[in-house]
């Protein structure tokens, strides 16, 4: 399936930044040594199956997710109730482990929620005895949802580290092709990060599935933000076993917008890639 000519996607991903972004002085991004399903095998496996979204696991109930998250004092302290748009607890655990290994201090998250608080709280614990601190910026298409996330951040005592930004979804036109994605405002992001380049990007938005989702809404996310990131910045995408996301991964790989390491079989699938 050709969503968008690969040349157009490549050209879009290579657009330069307009602000004077800076690397954190001691930023040393590296590749993970972790077992994943290689992208080439993922494409072959999906081609063998007939039913739509054959690799995408069925939705877990609220009680299932709550049980998997049990024992985490953060959830209990916040009184958080999981819902259909919550990131799977197993994916959250995998991201925490990746953060522990790579130790990013500047993180951009697309799609806010409980993942914002879990990841930022984990980073706070990692750097609690460190004067340098960290910066976590989360972006969401819904003003209501970003407000709810901001309230969670406040209750978790993370307001000094996390910035919540609202960015509506707007159309992007490429010849005869049109896609929807966040309205990336470079100046707003630059100010939120104090000019520092993100060392990790977590993609869980825009909403790509369900009744309110826009198919392929995440196609332009990584190509749009890579110009702001450090080389080798780690890019993670949730829902990576959904058909639309598998196709997005293929387009990112073909256009060289990202180097794809593979997909980790946790939750609904967690893609691991890197900014070239």
Structural Rg: 18 Å
Mean pLDDT: 91
The name of the CATH superfamily reads: Vaccinia Virus protein VP39
Strand order of the largest sheet: 3-2-1-6-7-9-8
Low-confidence stretches: none
CATH 2nd-level architecture: 3-Layer(aba) Sandwich
- Return the string of H and E elements: HHHHHEHEHEEEHEHEHEE
Strand content: 15-25%
Main sheet attributes: strand count, strand direction, barrel closure: 7 strands, mixed
Terminal-residue CA separation? 24 Å
At CATH level 3, the topology is Rossmann fold
**CATH C-level category:** Alpha Beta
Shape category: globular
How many independent structural domains? Answer: 1
Helix-strand category: alpha/beta
Total beta-strand segments: 9
> Helical region count?
10
Describe this structure as you would to a colleague.
There is one protein chain. The chain is an alpha/beta fold and 276 residues long. The chain has a single domain, classed as Vaccinia Virus protein VP39 (Rossmann fold). It has ten helices and nine strands. The chain has helices at 6-13, 39-48, 62-68, 73-78, 89-102, 114-126, 143-155, 186-192, 221-225, 243-255; strands at residues 106-110, 135-140, 162-166, 169-174, 177-182, 200-203, 234-238, 259-264, 270-274. The strands form two sheets. The chain has a seven-stranded mixed sheet with strand order 3-2-1-6-7-9-8, sandwiched between helices. Strand 6, helix 9 and strand 7 (234-238) form a beta-alpha-beta unit. Helix 2 crosses helix 10 (243-255) and helix 5 runs parallel beside helix 6. The longest helix is centred in the middle third of the chain and has 14 residues, at 89-102. The protein starts with 5 loop residues before the first helix and ends with a strand. The model has no long low-confidence stretch (mean pLDDT 91).
